[in-house]
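Final report, results section. Input specification for complex C-07:
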Amino acid sequence: MNSSRSIRQNARPDVLPNFRNLGIVLRILLISNGLAVLQAIQLANAWTDVAQRLMQIAALLTPVLLTSLMLLWAAQPWLNRLPYRQGALAVMALVVVLTLTIYEFGGELYSPAGSSKYYFDEARYALFSVMVCGILLLYFRLRTKMLSRALHEARLQILRARIRPHFLFNTINAVLGIVRAQPKKAETALEDMADLFRMAMSDARDLVPLSREIQLSKQYIALEQLRMGERLSVDWQMQDVPEQALIPPLLLQPLLENAVYHGIEALPQGGSIKINLRRSGDELRLTVENPCVERGTSASGSHGTGDFQGNYESERSTPPAAGNKQRSNNKMALQNIRERLDLLFDAEARYQVESGNNFYRVEIILPYVKERPS
Amino acid sequence: MTTVELAMRIFIVDDEPPARNRLRDLLSDCRNQLALDVVGEAGNGQEALDKLAEISADVVLLDIRMPQMDGIELAQHLQKLPKPPVIIFTTAYDAYAIKAFELHAIDYLLKPIRLGRLFDALNRAREAVPVQIEVLRDLLPEPRNNLSIHERGKIHLIPIEQVLYLRAELKYVTVRTTEREYLIEESLNVLEKEFNARFVRIHRNCLAAKDAIEGFEKGGEEGESGWMVKLKGLEELLAISRRQQHIVKEFS
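Structure output:
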């Protein structure tokens, strides 16, 4: 419960950035140093002078930046409990105090002996730090606002794109096809379908245990096997997988759906989807690999779907009307996963696609989030 | 026509076994009010072509999305049968195809299929005429995967990637593969438009497969000083017309 809440805070625009996140820290470093470069150019008399000026600025900026980040890292839980306005003020106050303290202790490093501008300098640096803080906080606020709109739409998209209408109608048709001969099997199928849609309609911002997602994926595969019979098989490989690890819901299932829709369905003999889940250190790696129609004969497969999956990354614009529909579906599903990962984990989650002549592989790497006892 | 109403012979094509099952169930429900016979079923395009060469059907219920050869391409090949069947497409969700069906008044059934809709479609099929190949071709935005010919009562498929060249002679087009040649009754201009990604026009009457081009030779025969194309796995050289000489530069 606890961890799902801390993730959710990121999703609201009126919440301070998570200073313990690597991506956020990197962004702070980059932006503030970028501003310093601009300032150096502004002060310099010639291009050769810029480096000199930058050194002067960095002499004060770097210690302030590093100590602020360290203190913010430590103060994160406390800051989280404050309302946004107070939190932002607290961050600014912290940085101003740090700037002045470091300036004070720096002594002659920052104010050469005999300088009469002592008070002017103090006021000036305090003003600078407030401005830089303001810019950064505004940036993070806008960024989360932008990303959280994507998240807001995610729920709708889940129904529209991730669980495809194609899947819904075909599955209902398949259930109707067996309901007279095997009523028991039809019952199970409908129950699986209910679970799948319940998950799709739930709040996309809550994290769920990995074991739940695995179970859901198995239910999904069972439904597809109902339609495709022996053409579809799945090879689960799990090494040292912490079942209680928390992941965003419907992360694995859409990948499987892509693998079925673009890979297995286009192959007359079917094939096997390889799912590999493993933990390495603080990371969780999910890999889904499926065979697809060979590129050389890519025209085969209904509407040549095997090809789009492999090529959608490279933005090829050849397939015409009917193809584009399916391609954009695939793209929407993957895009959606990417945005959710960005929002929830920033730079700590990665996403890789590798496609060969007759296979397609997606790998998602995300931080291992444990269920914290609340 | 005999005065006795003959049972309608129906053939089912769908790659999913439960979907075929469903259609069989519904067809047996129709039987009380409509004389019909399910004469067979197939799980893919090739199987359907083989079986329909043996048994004739009045109506084919045909799924659109199937591996290897989709329903719309299969429908085009089926039109080459001596007595082409009436085709009723079935689909779960294919917005593009549905729009096209509406436009050309082609019958289709949405999955999950309802008994009433199936019954109506079968009744309409009695009066329906087979769909024109040209219309079907418009439905499919992508080129076919196979060319087809009707040979000794069977429909023979020629995978397009095996075709080395297409050459127009009189009212036929010669289709050349490494093994042999076939004659099809299609227009070279239409073929050029459909397969322009795969073939290049080297002569007024000839399209050559781009992938098969091995090299070019100066042909001195018949007093012509033009270039000739050498294709992989083929002894014969093809002449390039004066107007198409520029392709030598593009491909070598």
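Chain A touches chain B at residues 164-166, 168-170, 172-178, 180-181, 226-229, 265-268, 296-297, 299-304, 318-323, 325 (CB under 8 Å). The mean pLDDT of chain A is 79. This concludes the modelling results for the funded period.
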